[in-house]
Q: What sequence folds into this?
């Protein structure tokens, strides 16, 4: 009788453990601004002027609210940043456009304004691997730059291939 109880107990334990481990993988889905989100290698003013010929890394990503009407624009406040900016900008995710007036800079006491922001799908070719990737364009002015200058920003989505990075 003890053997039968042990076998039944072992079989039930096996069934319970087996059923509990049959969970399906959950698809976490995407964010509301995923068509605009990413890391971008950008040049300012066509690579001329005070910013020189170098590329700078900026990121665009969703806010904690995860809504289709706003996202963060962040240059990372690091060696690859161009002005130390981070702020929430207005977004039209369906049309892949963005803008914002007097955006509060999260890195230091200043504001910036973004106009004519747009992400274009597969409109760029990365320089090293020649991979088709998204393109970004916007115009930006800084409150702490006098006289005020409207800078043109353009670039491409980071592919993460070494040949396309500018580190």
A:
């Amino acid at each position: 009788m003890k053997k039968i109880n042990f076998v039944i107990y072992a079989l039930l334990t096996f069934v319970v453990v087996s059923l509990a481990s049959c969970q399906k993988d959950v698809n976490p889905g995407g964010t509301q601004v995923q068509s605009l989100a990413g890391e971008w290698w950008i040049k300012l003013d066509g690579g001329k002027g005070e910013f020189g010929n170098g590329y700078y890394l900026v990121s665009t990503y969703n806010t904690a609210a995860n809504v289709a009407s706003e996202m963060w624009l962040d240059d990372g406040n690091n060696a690859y940043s161009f002005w130390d900016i981070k702020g929430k900008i207005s977004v039209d995710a369906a049309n892949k456009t963005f803008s914002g007036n007097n955006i509060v800079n999260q890195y230091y006491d200043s504001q910036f304004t973004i106009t004519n922001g747009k992400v274009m799908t597969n409109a760029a070719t990365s320089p090293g691997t020649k991979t088709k990737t998204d393109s970004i364009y916007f115009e930006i002015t800084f409150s702490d730059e006098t006289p005020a200058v409207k800078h043109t920003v353009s670039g491409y989505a980071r592919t993460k291939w070494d040949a396309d990075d500018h580190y």
